[in-house]
Structures are given as C-alpha cells and as structure tokens.
Automatic annotation (TrEMBL):
Biological source species: Sneathiella litorea
A biological process term (GO) from this entry: xenobiotic detoxification by transmembrane export across the plasma membrane
Transmembrane segments: 33-50, 57-79, 85-102
Species lineage: Bacteria, Pseudomonadati, Pseudomonadota, Alphaproteobacteria, Sneathiellales
Subcellular location: Cell membrane
GO CC aspect terms: plasma membrane
Protein name: Guanidinium exporter
This protein's record includes keyword Transmembrane helix: yes
C-alpha cells in the first residue's frame, strides 16, 4: 500500500507543479487553490508512505516522479524544449527510481 500512496503523491506533485506554473506567481485564484490543495494531498500521501518505506527511497521516488512528470508536462503541454541532453537526464532519473524500487525491502 505504501508504494500506491507514494506513486499517488508523486502524481499529485506533477499536478501542483503545473498548477503553480499556471497560477502566475499565485496571482490567479483557481490555479493557486489547486496548487495548495494538491500540495497538501501530496505531502499527506508521502507521509503515509514513509510509515513503512525508508526516507531516502520514499523522498527520492516522490521527487523523481514529480521531476520527470513535470518535465514531460513541460514538453507535451507547455511546448518546452526536448533536446537529447534533457531527455537523457530524465531517463537517468527514471533509471534511478527503478533501481531504488528494486533495492527496497518494503
């Protein structure tokens, strides 16, 4: 169950990162509210996952899902640049997440 919480927390991190961008520095109400609600939900699920997962694993996977997800949203939704170096960096993050999952006892 901890891994389900952790993945959900990571997906919520993607949503709050995107909505924070859309809030234009918290100057737009609706995206600002979405950011705050999804941040709280993401942190809550991360805390639940950390009940049984090691800190290093949980936090790294959470930030990795958020980082790679935000990267993909940036490319596919916001039209940001996807050059080979950036794509390679994202693939290295995903590789690290997979290795952490494989090496986890929980």
């Amino acid at each position: 169950m901890a891994w389900i919480y952790l993945v959900a927390a990571g997906l919520l991190e993607i949503i709050w990162a995107y909505s924070m961008k859309q809030s234009e520095g918290f100057s737009r109400l609706t995206p600002s509210i979405v950011t705050i609600i999804t941040m709280i939900a993401s942190f809550t699920l991360l805390a639940l996952a950390m009940r049984s997962l090691p800190l290093g694993t949980a936090y790294t996977v959470w930030t990795g899902i958020g980082a790679v997800g935000a990267f993909l949203v940036g490319i596919f939704v916001l039209g940001e640049l996807a050059n080979p170096m950036r794509v390679t960096a994202a693939l290295l993050i995903v590789s690290g997440l997979v290795l952490l999952k494989i090496s986890s006892d929980a």
